[in-house]
Amino acid sequence: METSKTFTHQKNFMLTELPKSKDIMENPMGFPTSFELPIIKDLTKYKNTLYAPADVTTNWDGYKAHLASVRPSFHPKVLLMGHDMSEIENITLMALGGVVREMNGIPYYLLVGPQNVHLTLEAIENNQPEWLGISLYTGLTTYVFEWLIQYKMDKARSITKKKISDFKTADKLLKGMVREAKGPVYEGNKLVYAPIIIGGHYNNYNFKDSWVRGGEYVIRGKGINIFRDILLGLYSPGIYHDPMPYANIPRMDREKFYKDTFEFSDKTKKYALSRIKSILTALGCSYSCTYCYVSSLIDNLREAYQEVGVRPPSIIQDRLLETVVQEGEAILALDDFYGVKTTAVFDQADISLNNMKWWDQLKNQWLDRVGIPFYIQARPAMLAGKTGKKRIKMISEKGLVAGISMAIESGNPKIRKLLLDRHESNDTIKDAILNVKESNIPLRTQSIIGLPVLRPSQVVNPIQSNLSLIGKDGEEFYYDDPIQESLTCLELVCSSNFGKEDYYWNALYSPFPGTPLGDYAVAAGFADDDTDARLYQFATESGLTCFTGITLKRQIAFSQTSNFFAHFKNGKDLMVLFLYGNNEFQLSDFAEFVETRGEFFKPHERPTQFGIIPNIDRHMLLKFIEDVYSDSDKFIKSINIKLVDYYLALLDGLILAAKIADKYYEFKDQEKEFTLADLYRVERIHYYDNSYNMSYIPERFESILSPLIHDSRAPAVRTG
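RESULT FIELD:
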């Protein structure tokens, strides 16, 4: 990357008051009235762009009118591309699309995967965008970069009419053209090249890779202001980072996103038709968990402002309340259009409930104008103690919040502190769970399996990483067997007030170089730095290379069965028996264990009001199994009989048994084997659906189950 000159404002940035914690971003005009670059500081890693409040658009309607008056011919056309892999709609693309819309432009949307990335060429041809924006997700980037390399080589050949044999030459040529044009490249009135803007989670720490592999503009952080100014033609190609996540996202372009994704692929119809939608109440996170990209962004925040003469602004900013409510109203309108009923909105803020004054103001407006309950993410410290009780009481009143996700990650406080930079005590975590359960809100706990807790195979250079599992007093906290560390978290949850309606979610650790923990894993010899070489699914493979053989098998088995064991007081001991009493972990092994160890199960004696057939007994299950499996399905029938205690321990076990039978028959038609991994997937989706008030019965078994439905918190529907 070339060295760029430093641009400055006409006004003195250092004298401009910066936003403070919990401020809702507002400026005198609501938008900048001139087209000027912010302060740009060239650092070794990237160029930091420092925006002052006066340079931030909060009144997007006003900005739209302003642009129309001063630049009436300005109508940017942007193709926004993301990954067709998430169960949750892509709010990043919808937010960027909202910016394009409010700049009097036209956004187009495309979701691609390994099998259909070729659709990008078709979308470019059909829509003729002036810009191509790509949001990258770690572990799914290889096919995007492969496509991008070929695309840029073909474009360079087409424009120059020359034989270009290598990507480096093509990339340099196109970046030079974009630099000269300050944006889209034209030959006369003909558009010949749309510059590539790359952002997304992957880009937050592997930004150099995005530059080398094709991006003209590489953006770290939220990038709303940078994206706006790139479209205005203010930036030359390079790597940029706005260290301040101003909460100035306009109303998201949900309408066009749903329309485009609905039309191009059957697979993505789920976003428009899903009964769970997404929203964003705030931007940023003030915590520096070592496994998360935010930690590197916080470091950059401090670095960017160290010579400015003021303290760094808060990294958490609340969005404008009216904008959030309007997005809720848009969800209702689109529900009417597509003929669906949204049952919950997932707040994708890194941390919800940061500003309880804001949530208190939101509550009445949201309930009066929208009425759909939230599902939120919160830290244990926010939910513990008397203050936590007050928070939970406020959000639980009138059903404002219907579910909470809370990350624990490890049950060993030393691992949390030294390795993960999380400082909650186990008592705080247990108190948080108690408070949530007293409010009768379903809870999802999150943990990480397979953390790099072994003794490093090589000396870690402090330049490469400052993490260590050696305390200040020299005490070491390494594990000879990493499974024992995973068991600490399970034991912690088992000793709490965990209920049937609660879900113990976990993921196998994947190191992302550029994050502190990812750098440590590489420096310690536990992993390589090729983050996008494999498709991490967090439940099927570890991202570390130090785990092999039986250890890796146990980690995967732990991941697939831990939610079941979490619902017993002695769940940790049961898990030990299961993991260390087997060398293979097939579905039959798990079923045999459940049947033969049933007398040892010590469930939490907490009744639940959740589910659509919440209080089932052994007789009901056995009768259902007898009715739905034929004589030709003797093996799976015997498996299900052995799993009766499994179904009794989990939420809405009869419905879960029906969903598993439904999936089994689907696989049977496809001549596919039903495995322990498939049992886990059905169970995970079952809890996912119930967390978002999406209880349903499989259509295949409607006649059997419908008469049994009672005490439902949400009406049951058939699967479509």
